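Exercise 7. Given the components listed, write out the predicted structure of the assembled complex. Treat all entries as one system.
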Amino acid sequence: MARPGRRPGPTETREAILSAARELFGARGYDGATIRAIAGQAGVDPALVHHFYGSKENVFVAAMRVPFNPADVLPDVLDGPREEIAERLLRFFLGVWNDPDSRAAFLGLIRSGMTNEAAAAMVRQFLRQALVARATGVLGISPLRAEAAMSHLIGMMMMRYVLRLEPLASADEDELVSIVAPSIQRYFDGDQGP
Amino acid sequence: MARPGRRPGPTETREAILSAARELFGARGYDGATIRAIAGQAGVDPALVHHFYGSKENVFVAAMRVPFNPADVLPDVLDGPREEIAERLLRFFLGVWNDPDSRAAFLGLIRSGMTNEAAAAMVRQFLRQALVARATGVLGISPLRAEAAMSHLIGMMMMRYVLRLEPLASADEDELVSIVAPSIQRYFDGDQGP
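Answer.
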């Protein structure tokens, strides 16, 4: 593969790792694709994958072009006043979707998850480990409540940015937050039953 | 097209109309495809389209295999105690999605809307006229609140039936309703600001 007379540089090695990762995540799902297997497929030492990416989650985020790493973002969202978590979450997602590059990456991920079972399995497992497990751990809410909140967030982004239903698509961010945040916040308030 | 020696029967005529409708809805969007144009494309008299289907909305529902006609269903959901609208809506949608045929039809519609701009325009215009306009008219809420409610409903169905995120995918219907309905109901309560 490499050009003769030259060892592959870090950029080519990273590309080989990400390409192997996309293949294995697609074939085995997020849970089934190990760093060891990805390294084997890319023809590199697993230690190098760890060195470049640190965790399987980071490999996934890079390989799938997820526009942000939940591990970096969630602490900021989950910290701060608990009664404003939904507002911080909404504003963060609106920011991500307003950026054309991030939006394209997100759309690719959602479209794949909607139309292809292997991609759906990948996205499903990643959402559970990267978002749901963290949110339930920190907030002490049930996974069902965390997923209900996520379903509203994702549905909102789809209707605003993909279907572009008016007036939702053009609604001012502050107005949108004032209308929607309380319905999401309900799921993060601990005193409402199951 | 018709076999020689035989005039096309009602079944063939309906198929010709639906096929013309799919083509025109796809090419011109829901608003742009008129009954007259659909009839012309199918080579029949517009009065025959009216006779078979009664309205453009009914043509769309049949052509796109929408699993229910909002005009038939919404009155039942919107009637009855206002404080239980969200619960009736949720139970209705869960019923539709639990049926494999309806689910397949819905999935086709959503997948097209997510991946193809012509389909997105069609679905968008149909949702606005068939659902949003009716809900705002009857309930006196803003279109933005109606669409926020719809975004939660659609996001929920996608996560439960398409991505199949657990525990949401296997959650008992009553439990789901008790957790989610209040967040949707908020949008239908008139006393909460914008």
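Discussion: Chain A is about 75% helix and 0% strand. The radius of gyration of chain A is 19 Å.
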